Amino acid sequence: MRASWTVIVGLTLSLSACDVSDAEGDTEGDTDAMGAGDSGADPSGGGDVVPSNAYCADVSSWDSTMTEFEEEVLILVNEARSQGANCGGQSFGPAGPLTMHPALRCAARVHSKDMAERNYFDHNNPDGEDPFVRMEQAGYSYFTAGENIAAGQPTPQAVMQGWMDSPGHCSNIMNPDFEDLGVGTFSGTGAQFGIYWTQAFGA
After folding, report:
1. Is 77 helix (H, G, I), strand (E, B) or coil?
2. Least CB-packed of 55, 95, 109, 132 within 10 Å?
3. CA distance linking residue 6 with residue 87, whole number of Å
4. Helix, strand or coil, per DSSP, at residue 1
5. How far apart are CA 129 and CA 11, in angstroms?
6. What pTM value is reported for the model?
7. Closest Cα partner for 113 from 57, 158, 68?
8. Which residue has better confidence, 191 or 177?
9. Confidence band, pLDDT 50/70/90 cuts, at residue 27
């Protein structure tokens, strides 16, 4: 991977019941909380697994290096959550670990791949679909959800450092309300920023 890639930390998007802010984050709350047994979570807590549905079919086979990067991001997220963090003056205590969720992993992969292939960098794709539409199409029902994106960082450590140095991204990572995570990493030939990263959070 070329060291000359442009690096973009990205935007945060997280939605909660009464708060919407596109500048630092969007969080969406859904009054229909996910019921017990509806999560679709991979009981192993990881692995190269996405749901077997039409929406996820194009991201079910994945480059092994990208899969390893996704797993490493999960490890780094849980290390950060276990320690607590200060996100731009907002203090977060230690939070519980997140579990790699197949549907969120699908949504994250779809978005990273789409950004690379259509050469854009935004939470909303050129068709106007936002992260929460992607999560639902992947089969994830949520009460609260969020997304971080980034591009150009060559390693999981680099992208995590960029996110942790940005208050909005850091707040999503440290949010104690989140329980599940999907990471999607895609490196596309000819893509403007080379490598794209998406974190999809939910509960």
Report:
1. helix
2. 55
3. 24
4. coil
5. 16
6. 0.81
7. 57
8. 177
9. very low
